[in-house]
Amino acid sequence: MSEALLSVRGLRSGYGAVEVLRGIDVDVAPGEIVALLGSNGAGKTTFNQTVSALLAARGGSIRFAGHDITRAHYRDVVAQGLIHVPEGRRIFPNLSVLENLELGSFARARAHRASNLQRVFEIFPRLKERTAQVAGTMSGGEQQMLAIGRGLMGEPRLLILDEPSLGLSPLLVEELFGLVARLHAQGLAILLVEQNVAQTLEIAQRAYVLENGAIQFSGSSAELLATDRLRQAYLGA
After folding, report:
1. Residues in domain ABC transporter (predicted)?
2. What is the pLDDT of residues 83-141, one digit of tens each?
3. Residue 206 forms beta bridges with which residues?
4. Final residue before a domain boundary, out of 138, 156, 174
5. Which of 132, 156, 180 is the last residue of a domain?
């Protein structure tokens, strides 16, 4: 693997008296899709929030593009190109589709807003058709498109997708994973955080499996698919 774009070592994090993450090591190389897998409550969202500086780390280190961001402000993290599309989409429901997209370039790539908007519309033609629509009136799948499009407006160097398939129909899930594969083919590094193990491992180069706040398995997707315990726990095989 080439030098890591994101390098997390010994990460500890939690809420109040509860320590959720207990010494997590994760690497993502430039242009790589890495999966972080695990069931509900495993600590995936806590990991994302800590790496994105929305939650303070209690120990360990986080480096991004050669810079130590362990104690950085979340605005500085975004400005460096680490962009997080959160679980549950978190769009602004009372704003229009266009306003939501424009907010994606508020902290980064504002000078390229027009060209990035055209790129998003090429990827998501449906959003171009609905620029004036109030975002909260869109379907769940359309809102997920909007959330990802908003993330792309900031020209991410690494895009963290937190449970993007949650609540989507099987057909939309297929479309979503196809989109992630296309973004990767364009050279974008992606950390895909999912419960949908089978489809995630089809497109990820490597994966980590998080259980009870610790990494239990890591390796190439092929190696993880060959692990009996993983197949039994997540794939029913």
Report:
1. 6-237
2. 999 887 789 999 999 999 999 988 787 888 999 999 999 999 999 999 999 999 999 88
3. 34, 220
4. 156
5. 156
